[in-house]
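pls ignore typos typing on phone
iron/sulfur cluster + seq
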Amino acid sequence: MAKKVLLEKAHIKGIRAYDVYKAQGGYASVEKALKMDPAAIVEEVKKSGLRGRGGAGFPTGMKWSFLAKPEGVPRYLVCNADESEPGTFKDRYLMEFLPHLLIEGLIVSSFALGSNSTYIYIRGEYAWIVNILEQAIEEAKQHGYLGKNILNTGFDCEIYVQRGAGAYICGEETALIESLEGKRGNPRIKPPFPAIKGLWDCPTVVNNVETIAAVVPIINMGGEEYAKIGVGRSTGTKLLSACGNINKPGVYEIDMTISVEEFIFSDEYCGGIPNGKRLKACIPGGSSVPILPANLLLKTAKGETRYMNYESLSDGGFATGSMMGSGGFIVLDEDQCIVRHTMSLARFYRHESCGQCSPCREGTGWMEKILTKIENGKGQSSDIDLLWDIQRKIEGNTICPLGDAAAWPVAAAIRHFRDEFEWHVNNPSLCLTENYGLAHYADELSIVS
Amino acid sequence: MLKFSDNKLKEVKKIIDRYPQGKQKSALIPLLHMAQSEFGGWLSPESMDYIASLLTIDPIEVYEVATFYSMYNLQPVGKHVFEVCQTGPCMLNGSDNIINYIKTKLNIGVGETTEDGLFTLKTVECLGACGYAPMMQLGDHYREHLTKEKVDAIIEECRGKE
Amino acid sequence: MAEEVKKIKVTIDNITIDVPMGTTILQAARMIGGDVVPPAMCYYSKLQGSGGKCRTCLVEVSKGSEADPRPMPKLVASCRTGVMDGMEVKNMTSPRVEDARNGVVEFLLLNHPLDCPICDQAGECHLQDLGYEHGKEGTRYEFKRRTFDKHDLGPYIQLHMTRCILCYRCVYTADQLTDKRVHGVLSRGDHSEIATHIEKSLDNNFIGNVIDVCPVGALTDKTFRFKNRVWFTKPMSAHRDCKCCSGKVTLWQRGEDVLRVTARKDQWGEVEEWICNECRFEKKNTADWIIEGPTQVNRHSVISQGHYEHVLKPTETFSAVHGGRKPKLLMDIHSVSEVNDPSVDLSLINGSATGEVFNHPTKTQE
Ligand SMILES: Cc1cc2nc3c(=O)[nH]c(=O)nc-3n(C[C@H](O)[C@H](O)[C@H](O)COP(=O)(O)O)c2cc1C
Ligand code: SF4
Ligand code: SF4
Ligand code: FES
Ligand code: FES
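k done
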C-alpha cells in the first residue's frame, strides 16, 4: 500500500467539517509554522523537494524564494484552482473532500510569504465548491486561524474565493492574475514575472491547489522526511486523476515509485481496461502532454519499465517520452481513434486560445479544421505534413505556453500514429465506419540503446 | 431600470471589500455572475451597463470581459441549460451519443432553445469531471455518468419544476 | 541634473552598438537601421504596453549577456525584450528567425481577405510590405476565411474587421489619448474582434489617430474612402494653428484638392505627433493649411512606387527599390481571393467589397 499524505483522511465521515478535521489532527501545521521564522518555512519546503503540481513541476521552495520583498508593498499568494486541463480533476476532489486541508496549507504558505490577503481563483463551473470553501474559511476564522492576529502572532490573514467564468487560459498564472483584476484572461508578456510584478503590480506567488495542500504534511513531518517519499527528484506523493477507458476512473494518490503498468492494471488503481479490451494509447499528464502508444508507455525506448514519476515519464524526451504534467491520466483502448481524439483536443485549444498572439489564434483553428477534414475522410496525405508544419510554427513562438500545449498533442499523435492518419487519408469511406484499431501499437519495440 | 435588491447590493459591497481600495474592477467577474442569475439567465447590454456603473468603469470594459468568458450568455437562453462536455476524455466515454440523444429528444440543435423556452443545449469543453464522463453542467451542479435513461430523468425533473 | 544612463553593448547581426540601459532589442536595431530591423506589426513606441502580440519581430538571442552567455532557448519578441550588456542577437542572419517569421506572416494572412485592390490602405499597408518580404506564393489555407458582422463606428472611421490583425494598437490609442474608450477587443480566440458591442460611434476629438496607428486597412478614414489610391496622391507637409493639437500634418493632395489629412509619420511608420479630429476630418481646403513642401516617403514602402518629386524615379527596378533584395510576390491574389475576381469591375462596387459581392457581382452593397 502506497503512502498517502494528502488523501489519507479523505473518507472519514464528516471530514469536510472543521470539528472532525481538527480532531483528526488538522491545523497542527499552522500551530507549528506560526512559531517558525517565515524564512525557515521556505527552507523546509526547499528541503522537501516539492515540485509544483500545476503542470510545470517547478520547485516550489525556489519559486517562493524568488518573491520580491520591497518595503511597504503588499505581497500576494494566489491559489490556482482553475483546473481546466482535460483529464485533470484532482484539485476538485481535494477541495470537495478536504477543504480544510487547502485552507490549512494556505494559512501556512501565506505566513511564509507574507500574504495578508490570499485569493483562491477557482474555475467558474465549480460553483458548489465555492460554497464548500467559503464554509471552511468561515469555520477557520471562528477558530482563530484566520483574521486578525492569528494565534497571537500578530499575523493577519484573510482568504477569499474568486470564481472564474469559463476560460482554460485563466489557469496560466498571468492570465489568472489579469482575470482576478477583472480583465480578459490575456496572459501577460513576461518578463516581468509575477514574483516581481503580479497581482495589482505587487509581488505575487501563484501555486496550484495540490502544491499548497502538500505544504501541510511537509511542515508536519519536516521537509527531509517528506523528501524520503518518492524517488529521485520526484519527492512526495502525487495526485493523479485517471479517466478514459479504465474500470476505476477517479483520483489516486501515488508515491511515484509504482510503474505505469501497475497504475493502469492493478485493482488498487485504475483496475484495467473494461470489457477485456486492450490498451492502445495513453496521455499520462493531461491533454497537453504527448500521447504515447501502449508499447512506449509501459516501457521506455531503452526497454526499461516506465514509472509514474517526473523523470521516468519524460524519459526519451518528446521523441519517445511524455510528461507528468498535471497528472491527468487519459487511457485509450483499442477501439479508440487517435485522429478523432486529436481532433477533439485541437478543438479544445482553438476554443480556449485567448487570441492575443497570431500563431496560436490562427494556428489552432487551422489545425482543428485540417484534423476534422482528415477525420471525415476528406484528407490528403499532404495534410499530415501540413499539420506537422503548422504545429512546428506555433510551438515556442507564442506569448504563453498554451501555444505549445496545442502543438504538442498534434505533434505526438503524428509522430507515433502517422500510419493511422495515413490510413484515414487512404481509406476515405472506410474510416467513416471503422476504426484503425490497435494495429501494432502494443507490439514489443526493438530496443534502441 | 435594472437594479439589484438591497440584499444583493450588500453582497456587492462585501465582494468589493475583498480588494484593496481602488481595485474594485476585480469584482467584475463575480458581479457579472450575479447579474446573469438575477436578470434572466443572460447578460443584456442594460445589465452590463448597470454593472459598469456599480464599479465606476467604462461599459466597454464590461463588454470586453463578458464576451471573453464562456459562462456568460450574451443571448437569452432557456430556463434549463444543458451544457454537455464534448472534450476528449468525455468523448472516449460516449459524449457524442449523449449530445445526439438530447438533440433528438428535445428536437433542437446545439446552441438552440426549445420552443417552450424550457431547454437550451450547449456543448462545452472539459469541465473537470473527466473521470465521471459523460457529463453535463445543469445550473450550479454537475450531472455525471450520463446515460440515456439519466437524461430522460433529468428532463422530467426539470419539467416537474414548472 | 539628469543622471548619466549607463551604456551597454549589444550586437545585432554582427553589428555592435552602444545603447542606454533599458533599451529593447527592437529599439537598438532601429538605432542601427537598415535590414537588421525586425518588422513590427503590433509594437508602437508611442503606445505604452503595446507589442509582444503579433510575433513578427521574433529574433534569436545567441548570447544572453557577457555575464550569462547562454543563448535563450526560444526566439524572443524583440519589441519587448530588453538588451543586456554583451548580448548577441540574430535577425537577418538566423534561419530559425526566418522560418518562424514566415510562419507568423502566414498566420497573419491566413484569414486576411487579400482585398488589396479595393482597400484604402493599399500602398501604405504594413501587412502588404511584410507579405512582399516574407510571404510565400499561394496559400496553404483552403478553408473559408473568417467573416464578421459589420459594425458602424460613426461618421469618421470605417472598420473592416476582416482585415484586422488584432495588434491592439487602436485600443491602446483610445485608452491613452482619449478619456473614455468605447471600442475594444471583444470575444476570444479566433473570434476576437474590434468592436463597440452595441453600436456606438467613436467621436472623441483624438480618436481619429486610430486610423494612423492601424497597420492595415481595418480602420480607415471615411472622409477619404475610395476617393483615390494612395499612390496617386501627393503627400505634402503642412501645418496650421490648432488649439488642440500641434497642427502638423501630411496632406494627401491630388492637384489642388486635399483628399486626406494624416499625422506625419517617421521612418518606422509611426505617428510623430498626434493630431485632432478637426485637423484630420474637417480641414479639406488647401487654404486651411500652410504648406511646407513635399513629404519624403520611406523608400521601402510600396507608396514610394509612385511618382513623387525628390523620391524615386519610376525607371528604377523593383529590386533596386528593395535595396538589392529580390522582391517575392506574396501570392497571386487573383487565384486565392474570391474578392479579387478579375471579371468583376471594382469601380462598380460602392460599398465594402466582401466575398458576398463577388459571388453576386450584380449586387452592390450599402
Ligand atoms: C494554458 C495553461 C493552463 C494552466 N492551467 C493550470 C491550472 O488549471 N491549474 C494550475 O494549477 N496550473 C495551471 N497552469 C500552470 C500555471 O501557469 C502555473 O504554472 C501554476 O499554477 C504554478 O503552480 P505550481 O508551481 O504550484 O504548479 C496552466 C498553465 C498554462 C500555460
Ligand atoms: S499562446 Fe494562445 S493563449 Fe497564449 S497568449 Fe498567445 S493566443 Fe493567448
Ligand atoms: S483595427 Fe487596426 S489597429 Fe485596431 S487591432 Fe485591428 S489591426 Fe490593430
Ligand atoms: S473531458 Fe469532459 S469533463 Fe473533462
Ligand atoms: S512587434 Fe513585437 S510582437 Fe508585434
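Chain A touches chain B through 57 residues (CB under 8 Å). The mean pLDDT of chain A is 96. more later
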